[in-house]
Amino acid sequence: MNFKVLFLPLLLISISLCAQTNSQNLDERFQKIYKQSEFPGFAIGVVKNDSILFSKAYGYADVGRKTPFTEHTIMPVASISKTMIALALVKAFELNYFNEETAINDILPFEVVNPYRLKDTIKIKHLFTHTSGIIDFEDTFIKSYHLGKKPDQSLADFLRDCLSKTGKSYSKKNFNKAPVGSTYSYSNIASALAAYLIEVKANMTFDEFTQKYIFQPLNLSDTHWFYDEQLADRYATLYEISKPNYPFYKDLVNEDKSVKIYSSITYPDGGLKTSLQDLIKYVQVLVTSPNGTSKFLVPESYNKLFKRQFETLNLTQNMDKNMQNQAMFWSYNSKGRLTHTGSDPGVFAVISIDQKSNIGRIVIINANIETENNQKILEDLKAIAETLELFN
Fold this sequence. Notes:
The chain contains ten helices and 14 strands. The chain has helices at 3-36, 81-94, 124-128, 138-141, 155-163, 188-202, 206-215, 276-288, 299-306, 375-388; strands at residues 41-48, 51-62, 67-68, 74-76, 145-147, 239-240, 262-264, 273-275, 323-326, 331-333, 338-344, 347-354, 359-365, 367-368. Helix 1 packs antiparallel against helix 10, helix 2 (81-94) runs parallel beside helix 6 (188-202) and helix 2 (81-94) packs across helix 9 (299-306).
């Protein structure tokens, strides 16, 4: 008898049973976390190379109607949207629209100049590293949000209004006083401006560009920017489970803590709507591209996308204490993993990619997470994070 032939199937069965048991145990952990938490629902995805290690949703997409949260439930992912701007930028580089050293005023149909730094040149790299000097002055940025299913102003008009000296919402307060490229200051408006540069060069909206060059090629059938009536029954209801800190929330939140439908004019910085199923496809591309198994990104584009930008610059002092460096919108966290979080009314999301193990981790929750005054939420998030670390 050939013992090698006999041993191989037994080994495969053993591995399969072990993986199944581990997956079941981890599923039970997530089930327990959900039952003890205040979260309406959440979904977890873990990929390694081109394999899916885990994909499961818990709780409700709509609490009142008892609609289950599933892998196909669609919800906004807030600032994770910026990672799509990053991907669109490297596609724009491949199309020779511009490069990271291009001055934004060489492209824009209106001029953007920091009033405190008149001789400084804002380049595309300054937008995707949050060092452009353009900041989110609250009175300006809050105007990008409004109740309703679609924005009531174009991205171009909003950006012109707040950044051009002749704009209706222009203010020096939309800029900081530091030299361009010298200070990190996270900016949604600057991020949206990066997306608008693609619009100008492509002669199509950023929505159309991403559909053509990203969503369709990657078969992201659930992924889009604006409310789609045909998908209404698949959208998650969003909830505020913490006490809102901003006046804007008073008009946004219902008595049952559900969030009214809202939209954002600067949609590229936070308006992406997608499902766990599509996020898994997206992260698989990002995980597999470096080893050449994905044909979507060429190695040069991947290198630009995830290049550490601050290795020789002392800019990290203004970043979150858990971040150690900045890539193209993505950040490197304290563990050296690529990461991006998203937080908006009724939304929390995070993607983390460990380039050493080629593991990508995804969490989406249909509730805003305010942990400053809510220790219980912080503990529940920590429990999810600790369970995700068991995947290897």
